[in-house]
Structures are given as C-alpha cells and as structure tokens.
Amino acid sequence: MKTGYQVLPEFRIVQHERDIQVLYALRKFFGCGVVRRNHDDRYELRIRKRSCLKKVVEFFEKHPLKTKKNVDFKKFRRIILMMERGEHLTKEGLIKILEIAMEINTGNHERLRRVLEEIRGLDEDTVHPHSERMG
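The chain above was modelled as a monomer; its predicted structure follows.
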C-alpha cells in the first residue's frame, strides 16, 4: 500500500558550540552524519542514513544510556527494527511507528497526530498523491 509518506528516522545529538569537537569525534567514530548549527550557540550531529543508524543502535545496545534518554532510545530502536522488517510499508506498521514517534518527538506531536489521523482514514488500496516526511 502506498500512502505518500516516507519514514525517515534520524538520530540527533545537540551540544553547545564550546563542545562542537564532541560532535565531530562522534561523526568520525560512527563514520557518518552531518554536523550543523542547531540554534544560536548550539550544534547538532544528525545521522539519517539507515546503515549508519544501525551502527548507532548497535553502539547503544552495547553501551546503554544511564539517563531517561534510554527510554526514548529503546523506542527509536524499535522503529529501526520495524523498518528492517519492512513493517513501515504496511498501514498497520506505519500507524504503529507514528504512535511510537509521538511518544519520542513531543515537539512534532501535532503534525504527527495529523498524519496519523490521515493514514488511519486511508483505504488499503489508496494511493496518496503527496509525500511528507515523518519523524
């Protein structure tokens, strides 16, 4: 089923500009990603490539976070694993991924809710004419 939506997960780490070298070191360690300005005096490492996201997931499985971010990481990992199984290509899988993403991305909550409602309303044979990035 084509919905017109793509699931494009990304992993981001934000640091103050005084710690930008941490982001470059992580980019070198993972062998991928982009360091760019996030906001004012903050920078971020952003990783979107699926093969690189797999490296990130494997790293944090071996070295679990000790903060509440570990809960978000486990949800992120679940989305990545669902995508590896192709679940994002089904209506049910896409809905589940959106529900998980809404628990992680509270800043995008309203946009994700709109997309979720739209996808829930699609018939199984519907081909949606536009594409919007989720996540």
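The two ends are 20 Å apart (CA to CA).
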